[in-house]
Amino acid sequence: MATCRSSSTTTPSPPLLHGVLSLSFLLLLLLLHSSTAVATIELRLGIIRKPSSVDVPIFREAPAFRNGETCDADEKIHIAMTLDSNYLRGTMAAVLSVLQHSTCPENVEFHFLWTRYEPDVFSSIKSTFPYLNFKVYRFDPNRVRGKISKSIRQALDQPLNYARIYLADMIPAEVKRVIYLDSDLVVVDDIAKLWQVDLEEKILAAPEYCQANFTTYFTDEFWSDEELAKTFEGRRACYFNTGVMVVDVEKWREGGYTRKVEEWMAVQKQKRIYHLGSLPPFLLVMAGDIKGVDHRWNQHGLGGDNLEGKCRSLHPGPISLLHWSGKGKPWLRLDSRKPCTVDHLWAPYDLFISSSAIHTFDE
């Protein structure tokens, strides 16, 4: 039933009005105290306050890393990574690990690819790494929206996951070589050692895994088609992970390799020839024709498989790079208090400041 409201207004009695004002004043004092406490904590932890965003975490400022005496300032190392708020915590850890283990960290220049301008993400990088040499480029997701086929895991279907195919089109023409790195890894060696690999006229260098069952990366429909099955004839095709690659982007451009990868993506749209995202078309074009790199540069699979992400152990041998490829990400497992043993190797590079840590610091 609708109720009628009188058009006349009622003024609170003086005691009631005084109580309302007192309560409001008390709430204002509490709010000011809380804001001041958080601001003080952020200042003491080296945080530059960014515009508020529920999607972008808060990080403490990383140390300033300087070149050693033997460094030549003109010898730049170019590293490309994708960038978005969902994986920002991993990106920050990866960047810190590269700088921390570099003899010449000031020579490292980062090229970040993102699908849209996110001011909070940009501000976060600037505040966390005030001395970082980096540039940001927009990858237009429309370039791949009609080319992506659904894979076994939704995260693999995001347009940004395909940006590495268009890397040579986005970075400046004067950049001739680039290291591409995923955001779910840490480097525990001098990245210059990977940068200096001799490509021997190849387009791409990466660790190869010839003991892996290569046939499992493609469907029965692929192998039962005589023409498609001939794709790898004359090549010793081995699996390689596209999360760690050294790419001669000049030769990539000259050879039209973006178009070659896209052609296989078009075949996938017509008939399902593989189950994963951007990896199989790379294999179809490049497998058996890359420069092999020591396995120490991609200790991959630490995130488990793509469906369940169960814990895995380290492979035997020396390690220069740890890669949490697969479903399980170390920051998520650590936050859930159900980490795998290998996740503790990632934790020292985590610059994230949790809200509970801030409250603890305040207390």
Automatic annotation (TrEMBL):
Membrane topology: Single-pass type II membrane protein
The protein's enzyme class: transferase
Signal sequence coordinates: 1-37
Entry-linked SUPFAM superfamilies: Nucleotide-diphospho-sugar transferases
UniProtKB keywords: Glycoprotein, Glycosyltransferase, Membrane, Signal, Signal-anchor, Transferase, Transmembrane, Transmembrane helix
GO molecular function, one term: glycosyltransferase activity
Entry-linked Gene3D superfamilies: Spore Coat Polysaccharide Biosynthesis Protein SpsA, Chain A
Pathway linked to the protein: Glycan metabolism; pectin biosynthesis
EC numbers for this chain: 2.4.1.-
Protein location: Endomembrane system
Gene Ontology CC entries for this record: Golgi apparatus
Family, per entry: Belongs to the glycosyltransferase 8 family.
PANTHER family: GLYCOSYLTRANSFERASE 8 DOMAIN-CONTAINING PROTEIN (PTHR13778), HEXOSYLTRANSFERASE (PTHR13778:SF5)
Record protein name field: Hexosyltransferase
Organism: Rhamnella rubrinervis
